[in-house]
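User: Predict the complex.
Assistant: Input components as received:
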Amino acid sequence: MSVELPGEDLLARVARGDQAALGELYDRYAPRIYGLIVHILPSREAAEDILQAVFARLWHESPHLRREGGSVAAWLVVSAREAAVARLRSLRMHPPDDGHQGHGHGGETGNPESRKTKSATSPPAARSARRKAETVRQVAGEAARTLPAAWLPQAKEIALIDDRLALLHKAINQLPPPQREALELAVFAGLSESEIAAALGEPLGKVRTSLRAAVTFVKHRRRAVCGTWAANI
Amino acid sequence: MGCQHLEEVYELWWLGALAEQGSRDLHEHLARQCPHCLARVRDAAETVYMLGLASKPVRPHPRVKVELLRQITPKPAPDR
């Protein structure tokens, strides 16, 4: 029987330039990370680009992450969510038809001049390569403002959550519908409190209260279920 | 200055749900290594991790892994 190496051991190998170890980390975490990204992004193509870019960024940042001791799973989830939400915001500002982001469905109704130039000079493979390169640059660029590993939980804390994930998700389902809706808009649509208020047509104060109550409930359930009530306070 | 007034915002900060000024203030505060807030921000990251994994896992197309590994493989130097 083979024993699964801890993610942090694989990370140490990745930090030494071991590509096979990155492949193992990918096999272990990609379905979860991709599940999160496709929940956020409307296009599978864009989601695949983000998935690939996040693991490429892990490849480059692994020595730093390993030195600081943060959980690789937490790093992946937080980084992937941030990258997907950033892409979603960018798609809201520049819808795909203006040439910023292809959905692969051929529906081009944006700026006709831009479309003419791009379609005359860029075969689909070249457009796809350019889009991937843009995604890698975008995700790598976010590294400048993110994520000291010291801000991330340790692997043992994430293992506790992983062990009880199904139970914890039941707690999310126990939220009153208005709180749950506000929380989902924050987590998966990347909306701020004021954007959620606008989206729901509710006063900002009400949304703020709702969102904070939801977060507090989920946090308390997590601490109770994982038995870490006082561990980090 | 105490940090109790920040107690409700760490998770929202991770989620990017705070107003820009509030988010910037907390970021700068964390950069000053406040031990209370660093512990709380790590704790908040656990909640964000759990929320992020509320989606069902989805297996990506095998091509994505192949392209990833190709992307990180150094290109051989051209023969002279």
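Residues 223 and 231 of chain A are 9 Å apart (CA to CA).
Let me know if you want any component modeled separately.
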